[in-house]
Specification:
With 523 residues, the chain is α/β, with parallel strands linked by helices. Helices cover 31% and strands 23% of the residues. Helix 12 packs antiparallel against helix 14.
């Protein structure tokens, strides 16, 4: 039995963060749309109702039937979730006099309530709502207040003689709620009874067994990108089924400098069976003269599928009649972002799409329950080298979406050189805390503004060449990101080296935009 907490998603941007906090407590959890609770799942030990962009009394608000849940399982409502429980159980929710947003202090805490055991007086929490609970639900009692919010948290100790129900109008999952992790631990461990047995070691052991049962004697094809997700997926599958796995690594000509050769060497050291395909000429030819970013992505995606298909057919046709699976490094955020909860899909997820139906490949996604940081932990558990496990994310279309304007082989070479200087510098620069800048940054790269020309002076001559922009961000999951505050001396050193060594570049800029409103990539 794999214990689990179900998180019902009402459309909040912080729902994933709740799940991440529970995983940090070594407790498995699953995010589901607000109206998709698995009523017959015996492994569920508790339920959390997340936030929402709507008011509970809004005609478009998401309403769920909680009757199969309340009293049968412990329930925690967060923000909208707390208000929805109150609103549908005899309480009252009204617009607040002013929007309650930002840091607040708990001025009243009932430490006898299981949710607040161990809390400090005046503990800081984070509010983010325009409504407030003005009357508690039937059987409810106040267990925490702030100067502005009387019913900051409430408890129904025994809902209709059954399990307890809790509601908090602040967000324990965010960093600014200082003891938020303690509150979630109190709920998950003390109230719900989590054994806290969700760990990378257990995940590897159970997943290897499941893969062996699932795949049997069949063959598996996996498209590698050189990134963390597909690499960990490959090593996990290799441990489970060995030489039944064949990996395909396509070089579209827009990887980082010398990356194809380095990654192939890494995969060889890991004992993986990898088919390397240099299709760079094909991709660059098809991209000739294409400027529009989405058109670039579609061409690269189409060509990748065609090249992958050609190689996959060879493997399938040589399979001696045995079945074949397509493995993908899909991770949990990919699946969450593809769920249509609010009516707007954040992004359509795909890894390797468009494989012909006649190939009859079944799908295998061994990382589909993991967040990115958990994928890295599993990689370390599998004994993978740190430079592969901690590698920064890199876009599938590669440097094509970091070249503003048409892509040419010469532009790719120029950007590869500038990018190599920047990333190598991040790896070599040790900050005052003993960590390299590469370790402290989530993602980094250079962007070539190939349609922009900037005047400069080199020696006694004026130049009219391209600028390069450097981008480095800090993040935990790429849902949001802040620009990395890199040391001035580092930026000066990198700028000087790029201008002096990379022909065609005479100016270096640093991007100080956060996400939102800007994206991490420029295209």
């Amino acid at each position: 039995m794999q214990q689990k907490i179900i998180i019902l998603d009402f459309g909040s941007q912080t729902t994933q963060l709740i799940a991440r906090r529970l995983r940090e407590l070594n407790t498995f959890c699953e995010i589901l749309p607000y109206n998709k609770f698995p009523a017959d799942d015996p492994d569920v030990i508790g339920v959390i109702l997340g936030g929402s962009p709507y008011s509970v009394y809004d005609p478009e608000a998401f309403h769920a039937d909680l009757s199969p849940i309340l009293g049968r399982l412990p329930v925690l409502g967060i923000c909208y979730g707390a208000q929805f429980i109150a609103y549908t159980n005899g309480g009252r929710v009204e617009a607040a006099g002013s929007r309650e947003y930002g840091r607040q202090r708990l001025t009243r805490i009932d430490r006898e309530c299981p949710l607040f055991r161990g809390f400090d007086e005046g503990s800081q929490v984070w509010m983010s709502h325009g409504d407030t609970i003005t009357a508690l639900p039937d059987g409810g009692c106040v267990v925490a207040s702030t100067p502005q919010v009387e019913n900051a948290a409430y408890c129904i100790p025994s809902y209709r003689g059954g399990c307890p129900v809790f509601g908090v109008q602040f967000h324990p999952e965010v960093f600014h709620s200082v003891q938020g992790s303690l509150l979630l631990q109190n709920f998950v461990v003390d109230v719900c009874g989590s054994r806290q047995d969700w760990s990378p070691a257990n995940y590897v052991e159970t997943t290897v067994d499941e893969l062996r049962r699932q795949i049997g004697a069949d063959r598996v094809i996996l498209g590698l990108s050189g990134g963390v997700d597909s690499s960990v997926c490959a090593v996990l599958l290799n441990r489970a089924i060995g030489n039944q796995l064949t990996c395909i690594f396509v070089d579209h000509g827009m990887l980082r400098k010398d990356e194809f050769a380095r990654v192939m060497q890494d995969y060889e050291c890991l004992g993986l069976n990898v088919v390397g395909v240099d299709a760079s000429e094909r991709f660059l030819t098809d991209l000739k003269g294409v400027v529009e970013p989405e058109a670039k992505r579609k061409i690269i995606g189409r060509d990748f599928i065609e090249v992958f298909n050609e190689e996959a057919r060879k493997i399938v046709s040589g399979g001696n009649g045995s079945g074949c699976w397509l493995a993908q490094g899909t991770i949990y955020p990919d699946r969450i972002e593809s769920l249509n909860i609010t009516g707007k899909v954040i992004k359509s997820h795909h890894n390797v799409g468009g494989l012909p139906e006649e190939m009859h490949l079944r799908l295998c996604e061994p990382l589909k329950w993991l967040f990115k940081d958990e994928v890295r932990r599993v990689g370390r558990e599998l004994g993978m080298p740190e430079h592969l496990v901690s590698r920064h994310p890199f876009p599938g279309p590669g440097l094509a979406v970091r070249i503003l304007g048409a892509v040419t082989r010469e532009k790719v070479r120029t950007l590869q050189e500038a990018d190599d200087i920047f990333v190598r510098g991040l790896r070599e620069y040790v900050d005052s805390d003993g960590r390299t800048l590469y370790e402290k940054v989530w993602q980094a790269g250079a962007i070539l503004l190939s349609d922009v020309h900037s005047v400069g002076v080199m020696g006694d001559e004026r130049t009219y060449e391209n600028p390069v922009a450097l981008r480095a961000v800090t993040s935990t999951d790429a849902m949001t990101a802040d620009w990395a505050h890199l040391p001035y001396d580092f930026l000066a050193q990198v700028s000087s080296e790029i201008i002096n060594r990379v022909r065609g570049v005479n100016r270096v800029c640093y991007d100080i935009s956060s996400k939102p409103p800007s994206t991490i990539e420029w295209e």
